[in-house]
Specification:
Chain A is an alpha/beta fold. Chain A has helices at 3-6, 10-19, 21-43, 48-64, 66-79, 90-104, 115-119, 122-128, 138-145, 162-173, 181-198, 224-230, 248-262, 317-321, 323-328, 339-350, 367-371, 378-391, 397-411, 413-426, 444-447, 460-469, and strands at residues 83-87, 108-111, 132-135, 201-204, 208-210, 215-220, 234-240, 244-245, 270-274, 288-294, 431-432, 435-436. Chain A folds into 2 domains: 3-300, 3-Layer(aba) Sandwich (Rossmann fold), CATH 3.40.50.10420; 397-474, no CATH class. Chain A is elongated. Chain A starts with a helix and ends in a 7-residue tail after the last helix. The model of chain A has no long low-confidence stretch (mean pLDDT 95). Chain B is of the alpha/beta class. Chain B has 2 domains: 4-112; 117-231, Rossmann fold. Chain B contains 13 helices and 6 strands. In chain B, helix 5 packs antiparallel against helix 6 (90-102), helix 7 (106-113) packs across helix 9 and helix 11 (178-194) packs across helix 12 (205-217). The two termini of chain B are 24 Å apart. The model of chain B has no long low-confidence stretch (mean pLDDT 96). Classes of the chains: A alpha/beta, B alpha/beta. Chains A and B meet through helix 2, helix 15, helix 17, helix 18 and helix 19 of A and helix 1, helix 2, helix 3, helix 4 and helix 8 of B.
Chain lengths: 476, 237
């Protein structure tokens, strides 16, 4: 998202999202559907739980020897005739792609859905360099037409209703299209067909890359991934370094749970395995294959508090179940990766200070951890992130003072009682029908929409001596 | 253990719990000087401060055989986070681990420790049960409260659609992002009203404050009540 929109504070971005009727409609329908499909899919898959444990263990094991697996991957890809580029930052990754475009005379690039290229804002860089990027995943195609950013990791246009998409297509493509997903898909398909044939470069991300075989794995539902990796003469894959996995057997474990977690499918419609560029004797495939292995803040976290976030498969399940995401959608978060995992990934990419508000955009309900295919303890990491904000004094000082005072009261029963007594006096003007309304200061943030119970005339502690004496309480 | 919200805002829940436990033959003690489990500090990232509170609580309950809390999140805090918070002091950590194993959320204590499935009470009406996040996902409990509710004479338990979804409380979340918190709450309350229940039952003071506050504000006929209040109706009920 642009820096401009980030200038609006997060609570206001959330407010705008809550007021957006189209967004609310689209989000409600889509997330509910995703939740149901995922639940159903795992219900009929008893081995799923053990596979999730196994997947987690593979990710952890891979991180422990990440350098080794990456070198093996690079060796194998080079042996197959591909090129591997190691980059430390997003900027370096962009520069590699731009240099390739310049050197090879690329004027148009077709892309399959990739969060890594969103992360480095590749489309903007390509456009600035005079190369036309064309998104070919239907959702990405929609938001590219709308000049927007993805609002979900796997369903980038989740914030749009079909009516909005029909209006968008009608306006941008010329014509009058009805709000029927089948019709709209056919329109996009027709528009994109020639682009696949004309493009000089195909750009993808990578869901996985298998070290032992040098295989780049793409999981898609529309077949566009296949076209992007086979029709243009150059294929460039941009991949976060944590996406490497050791073996093809490991891949089977991940494939068994990825689509189930994401869309409730047993497998996605297409699983594309790319092994090197076109080999002698082969009739299709790109002449050149480039894999960009990108760090961009990742390896720093191998020994950092966000280590577990490196397990993430980008399935989006945690977004669908998150009560906050379900209310505000992805754009309000303001960064490439939305939702609970997005807060952690943003902290990884941009530093903890960038999420000082977002770190609190969670009720810590734990639904995300529950559905994560690799059981990332997102709530725990959010709490640790908040601890870092306190430690580094990034949290606002009034808040830090309030919590220090709260600790005083929690460690002194006398102060705690005094607090209750003061509360009883102070609340008097605000009692309506035995409830508190219209409270001032930060309490107003509660009472604007909800009543608050008044401090009881006698707290439990105050009632206890008499309860203790009336042992006959057990016979009502 | 009666923690901050229960002590100050819902003393009747504590009274109901004491009545219930005594009726079941349990000797109830209340170590004076209790305040809060420290979860608000912990959740907001003030871990050093939360550790100070935890150390104090561990000391207060050293002599108890079992510790029963009518709030799933506080039980979760004690059971799951105390030992880690006190890891730098081996003696305190050991004491925290002892406390963790002997601490129970009320419904779990009744069903798992006392082996009770029906407490021989009666309540006329329809109730819907809300799964509090920390009791459900933190402590893995969804059955005990429902079992107990089904055992109440005259009480009809109806399933709440989306009962496992958060009510939007989330401690300081509810005042940091009040609009989002309320939007989440509204979904919960609409679902509760849709069941036709008289009472929305939960086992957590935080959820009750949130859901109860929303229900009275919208003038709903549904009341938010604690499980203990159904199992041991108060003196004037």
């Amino acid at each position: 998202m642009s820096d401009e929109s980030l200038r609006t504070p997060f609570p206001q971005r959330a407010h705008a999202a809550l007021e957006d009727a189209h967004l609310q409609e689209a989000l409600g329908i889509a997330t509910t559907r995703f939740i149901g499909l995922r639940k159903e899919s795992f219900a009929g898959f008893p081995e799923g739980e053990a596979l999730r444990d196994r997947a987690r263990a593979i990710k952890e094991g891979t991180l422990q020897q990440l350098d080794l697996h990456l070198e093996r991957l690079a060796d194998n890809i080079e042996r197959l005739g591909g090129h591997v580029h190691w980059v430390a930052t997003g900027e370096e990754a962009r520069d590699i792609v731009l240099r390739l475009c310049r050197d090879k005379g690329v004027r148009m690039a077709v892309k399959s859905k990739s969060m890594a290229t969103e992360e480095i804002e590749l489309n903007e860089a390509l456009e600035a360099a005079g190369v036309k990027p064309v998104e070919t995943d239907l959702g990405e195609y929609i938001i590219q037409l709308a000049h927007e950013k993805p609002s979900h990791i796997i369903a980038p246009a989740i914030h749009k209703t079909k009516g909005q998409v029909a209006d968008l297509f009608s306006k941008e493509l010329g014509g009058r299209f009805e709000a029927d997903p089948e019709v709209l898909t056919a329109v996009a398909r027709k528009e994109l067909r020639q682009k696949f044939l004309d493009a000089d470069m195909g750009i993808t991300g990578a869901n996985f890359a298998v070290a032992e075989t040098g295989t780049i794995v793409l999981v898609t539902n529309e077949g566009n991934g296949r076209m992007v990796t086979s029709l243009p003469r150059i294929h460039v894959a941009v991949m976060g370094m944590e996406k490497v996995i050791p073996t093809m057997t490991d891949l089977m474990v991940f494939l068994a749970i990825l689509a189930r977690s994401a869309t409730g499918q047993k497998l996605s419609s297409y699983t594309t395995l790319v092994r090197g560029p076109r080999q002698p004797g082969e009739t299709e495939g790109p002449e050149e294959l480039h894999l960009i292995l990108m760090d961009n803040g990742r390896t720093r976290q191998i020994a950092g508090t966000l280590r577990e976030a490196l397990y993430c498969l980008r399935c989006g399940a945690c977004l669908n179940v998150c009560p906050v995401y379900r209310q505000i959608g992805g754009h309000a978060y303001g960064y490439t990766y939305p939702g609970p995992i997005g807060i952690l990934l943003t902290a990884m990419l941009k530093g903890a200070a960038s999420v000082k508000d977002l770190a609190h955009a969670s009720s810590l309900c734990g639904a995300c951890k529950d559905v994560c295919p690799v059981r990332i303890d997102i709530p725990r990491m959010l709490v640790d992130l908040r601890a870092e904000l306190d430690r580094e004094k990034i949290a606002p000082w009034p808040e830090r003072v309030v919590f220090r005072l709260a600790r005083r009261a929690m460690t002194s029963p006398a102060l705690f009682r005094l607090g209750a007594s003061l509360g009883r006096v102070a609340q008097r003007p605000f009692v309506r029908n035995g409830r508190l309304r219209g409270l001032p200061l930060f309490l107003g943030r509660w009472t604007r929409t909800r009543d608050l119970p008044p401090v009881a005339s006698r707290t439990f502690s105050e009632r206890w001596p008499e309860l203790d004496n009336s042992k006959d309480l057990e016979r009502p | 253990m009666i923690t901050c919200l229960g002590d100050m805002f819902f003393p009747e829940v504590g009274v109901a719990m004491v009545r219930l436990l005594r009726r079941l033959g349990v000797t109830v003690e209340f170590p004076q000087g209790q305040t809060c489990c420290g979860m608000p500090l912990f959740n907001s990232g003030y871990h050093h401060d939360a550790a100070v509170v935890a150390a104090r609580t561990v000391g207060l309950f050293a002599g108890a055989e079992h510790v029963v809390v009518p709030s799933g999140s506080c039980a979760w805090m004690v059971k799951t986070e105390y030992p880690g918070l006190l890891k730098d002091d081996p003696a305190l950590k050991a004491a925290a681990e002892v406390l963790a194993t002997k601490t129970y959320e009320l419904s779990q204590f009744l069903v798992d420790v006392l082996g009770v499935t029906s407490v021989e009470s009666s309540f006329r009406g329809k109730v819907a049960y809300h799964d509090s996040c920390h009791l459900l996902r933190g402590l893995g409990e969804s059955r005990a409260p429902r079992t107990l509710l089904r055992g109440v004479k005259g009480c009809q338990l109806v399933e709440l659609p989306g009962s496992d979804e958060c009510c939007g409380f989330g401690g300081s979340f509810s005042v940091r992002l009040p609009e989002v918190s309320t939007a989440v709450l509204d979904k919960k309350l609409a679902a509760a009203e849709g069941t036709g229940a008289d009472c929305l039952v939960a086992c957590d003071a935080g959820c009750l404050m949130q859901m109860g506050g929303g229900l009275t504000r919208r003038g709903s006929r549904v009341r938010a009540v604690h499980l203990a209040q159904i199992l041991a109706p108060s003196e004037h009920a």
